[in-house]
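Reminder: ligand-aware prediction takes two inputs, not one.
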Amino acid sequence: MYYSMSQQSKQRIEEKIAELKRQQVLEAVEHIIEFNSTPSELKKEMDKFVIGQEKGKKIIATAIAFHYKRLGTALKEAVIQKGEDIDEVLKTTRTPKANILIVGPTGCGKTYTAEIASMLVGVPFAVEDLTKFSEVGYVGMETGDILVDLLIAADGNSHVAQMGIVYLDEIDKILTETLAFKDVSGKGVQKGLLKLVEGMDNIVKMGKERIHLSTKHVLFIAGGVFEDIESIVKKRMAKQGLLGNWKDHLMAEDLVKFGMERQLMGRFPVKVVYDQLTIQDLKDIMTKSEDSPLKAYVNDLKAWDIDLVLTDDALTEISRRAEQEGTGARGLTSILHRVLFEDMYSLPGNYTGELVMDEMYVRSRLR
Ligand SMILES: Nc1ncnc2c1ncn2[C@@H]1O[C@H](COP(=O)(O)OP(=O)(O)OP(=O)(O)O)[C@@H](O)[C@H]1O
Ligand SMILES: [Mg+2]
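Here is what comes back for the chain with adenosine-5'-triphosphate:
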């Protein structure tokens, strides 16, 4: 059946959608206004997911709790003054931004921390792989595409998107030098990012619609391995006669020496260095993290009435092997899969009850 909608019906639907969108915005603003986690409360929540990285989590939890408390307070004042005109409220609200840079080895929880934090705060989250970006969109994407991703993460609601978190992955790969591709320079990408990160008004064109989207309140968290940055920091510390852990001394000028644009690095005032995960951390990720890959396998097998139990020795052996892989916590998933695969294939339907694995068992599976 083909139903041709009357102008009146169309208008009613449009009004309903507009009303729902407005409701969604009000709820999102209310949510930020009500944000009331202290840094230590936020960190405690993060601890349930992100293992280790104690100092880093402290710094990040503080920056994020302050950012949203500041935004919430400013929004509240603006609402009192301007009423429910959220557009106006967001435009006039001024909040100094404390964007965060996380430096650390692969698979140690940089992206994961940002993702968990946005989930805990309850704001949209977008991850951007910067290696895909170029100044002119020549080899992939333009910085403007980040806004589209954020908009999608916010279910198309531009006001909600403006309060979200964007994670810029592999920021260390967009060095100042020109890349191998013609027309593509890391410098250009860094310049594009600079505007976005410090907060700018943008128009995103989607079909006929022009959506206003400012990044003024968006919190940017950038992450990268920054291979060998340690030696740059240590060299400077030696020159300046500074003592202590290099991780507490990372400065913008070290990152500039590495090849980053000074202006861009200046837009990330909060700098955090994450640690390589230890065998104990990897063990804790399996036994304590809410997102433990082991817990996932245990639950999967439970569905077939198989109770998987790994002895402490077995967990140590798996962590040791994962550490050797050098891919951080990512190694756990692949090692666990190698250990469990045969049983996952053959036992369902043929066996129920306890399935205990010890170190010897793990070793035999990993031979
Ligand atoms: N500290 C941690 N605590 C709990 N789980 C972790 C931790 N670090 C990593 N993981 C697990 O490993 C996965 C990969 O980590 P993540 O994506 O955060 O790595 P990364 O530090 O961003 O690495 P890369 O530099 O390669 O992007 C996460 O999704 C998470 O499941
Ligand atoms: Mg990452």
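The pocket of adenosine-5'-triphosphate (ligand 1) is lined by residues 50-53, 104, 106-112, 169, 223, 225, 285, 289, 291, 328-330 (CB under 6 Å). The longest helix spans residues 54-82. We will return to this case in the review session.
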